[in-house]
Write a structure and sequence with these properties.
Distance between the termini: 32 Å
Radius of gyration: 15 Å
CATH architecture of one domain: 2-Layer Sandwich
CATH class of one domain: Alpha Beta
CATH topology of one domain: Nucleotidyltransferase, domain 5
Shape: flat
Strand content: 35-45%
Oligomer: single chain
Number of helices: 1
Largest sheet: 4 strands, mixed
Length: 89
């Protein structure tokens, strides 16, 4: 089973990533239109007989600026400018 993640970005299009059952990144890209994302999902689904699971992260409101916190691998960062690991709150 392959897991596909789609992050809907209001101003930058769609960030997409696919990981395999072991959590290894097998594909990633940015797309401008939903049709391009659908083509990506269809192409990846045709590769794996076990199928794919799709998760979509879509904001209910457009963000006016990037979030001040983010994950990078297993590290959680509170402030993009400081890039300091503080752990999740």
């Amino acid at each position: 089973m392959t897991c596909l993640g789609i992050d809907v970005q209001v101003k930058r299009g769609f960030s997409c990533a696919a990981i395999d059952a072991q959590g290894i990144l097998v594909a990633s890209d940015w797309y401008s239109t939903p049709r391009q994302v659908l083509g990506w999902v269809s192409e990846l689904a045709s590769r794996w007989a076990a199928g794919v699971v799709v998760g979509i992260d879509a904001p209910s409101d457009a963000r006016v600026s990037p979030r001040p916190w983010y994950w990078e691998g297993s590290d959680y960062f509170e402030d993009r400018a400081l890039h300091t690991v503080n752990g999740p709150s």
